[in-house]
Design brief:
7 strands; alpha/beta; Spore Coat Polysaccharide Biosynthesis Protein SpsA, Chain A; 17% strand; globular
Length: 230
């Protein structure tokens, strides 16, 4: 494997995007060539203007209306050229340097899909909002009960896939219900799946966090839908 495609969905991240891109540029990504794909989900805070100035440096895609993270990932997947696809949020909650250990499992043909888990080493992480931590643990437990799996962190941003594997999956979700949908479809396909511990420095809603309690209900619905009806 030679190239990794890094999908970065972006929506109103004017305060973090440039710093995040610097971190991605400086990260090794297991020595693979990087293809950075920015998908602007109709940002209105000045982020889009920053992205337009990066068109010569990265592959840049635009939505004409705000559609959600799942839709942005779906758009990005149509343009990937890498052997591995990874997802990177445009905030600073995750450390791109930690993608090395995730990618190596796929490079060494030990896995088709690898998640970076925030909850394996809790003492190294700052989850910020306890209710979010509890919600994530509940949704992960629900996924395990429905699919007979042993996940520790279904809602993690850090997900890596063999490109040929994820391109074979039809993604329907537009919003944050992408995470339960893709997890459900991975588990139903009996993929070679692994998790590795990662660090995490969560932000508050005042700092720009976008996922809310309503997204939790969408996730529950998605898990049930993709377990029994799709």
């Amino acid at each position: 494997m030679k190239k990794v495609s890094i999908l970065i969905p972006v929506y109103n991240e004017i305060n973090t995007l440039v710093k995040l891109l610097e971190k991605v540029e400086n990260a090794d990504f297991a020595g693979l060539e990087k293809e950075i794909i920015l998908i602007d989900d109709y940002s209105v805070d000045g982020t889009r203007e920053i992205i337009k100035n990066l068109e010569d440096k990265y592959k840049v895609l635009y939505h004409n209306v705000n559609m959600g993270k799942g839709a942005a990932i779906r758009t990005g997947l149509k343009h990937v050229e890498g052997d591995i696809v990874v997802i990177q949020d445009a905030d600073l909650e995750y450390n791109p340097q930690e993608y090395d250990q995730i990618l190596k499992l796929i490079i060494d043909d030990q896995a088709d899909v690898v998640y970076g888990s925030r909850f394996i080493n809790l003492d190294t992480n700052n989850t910020v909002i306890k209710i979010n931590f509890l919600a994530n643990k509940f949704l992960t437990l629900m996924a395990n009960l429905l699919f007979g799996s042993s996940l520790t962190d279904m809602e993690t941003c850090y997900k890596a896939f063999r490109s040929d594997f994820i391109k074979d999956i039809v993604i329907e979700s537009n919003g944050f219900d992408f995470d339960p949908e893709i997890t459900a479809k991975i588990l139903k396909k009996k993929a070679r799946f692994k998790e590795v511990p990662i660090s995490y420095c969560g932000r508050t809603f005042l700092e720009g966090k976008k996922i809310t309690w309503k997204d939790g209900f969408h996730a529950i619905f998605a898990l049930i839908k993709y377990r029994f009806f799709c």
